[in-house]
Amino acid sequence: MQADCFAxxxxxxxxxxxxxxxxxxxxxxxxxxxxLQLICIGGRLQSSHLLESEAINSVVLDPAHQxxxxxxxxxxxxxxxxxxxxxxxxxxxxxxxLRGREAVKRHQHSCPxxxxxxxxxxxxxxxxxxxxxxxxxxxxxFCTGIDCFGPFTVRVxxxxxxxxxxxxxxxxxxxxxxxxxxxLNQDSLLMPLQ
Length: 194
Hints:
Shape: elongated
Number of domains: 2
Number of strands: 7
Radius of gyration: 36 Å
Helix content: 25-40%
CATH class of the largest domain: Mainly Alpha
Distance between the termini: 85 Å
Number of helices: 8
């Protein structure tokens, strides 16, 4: 990959010559690693014993190469499609991609899974209020909504019985009245309604 993208720089550094001033690698203080036969970045971390060797002498890679796109895709998939900074930081631990942030953002912009994670939910538009809710000059409970809930087990003496709740809501003022039903037949519904 480096032979394809940095052929002149690789030749200069392997011959122990500095890279030309027109090179894209000039700001990285590039060094040639004879063991790996690759271009690595230089820097001031050479004497650090706490960092891994990959982090100290990261291999320089070109973002336009197809293999880099596959590396970014694989790292994004392994990390479950995180944000661009998290993915860029994780890649930076292994290698130095020129214009890496741009390459990561470009990949995440075209990745369908990343688009799905970044998508914002669509806020549904609420329907118009029914006419019963708009009668403002009427008394409370002029127009009422009714709902039933339960059953609940209630202890009466020595036995357990079922009870239901009935909820009346004024559609204009939203006042609420709750009552108890002893059963779900017609007579027990008419008593709280009266």
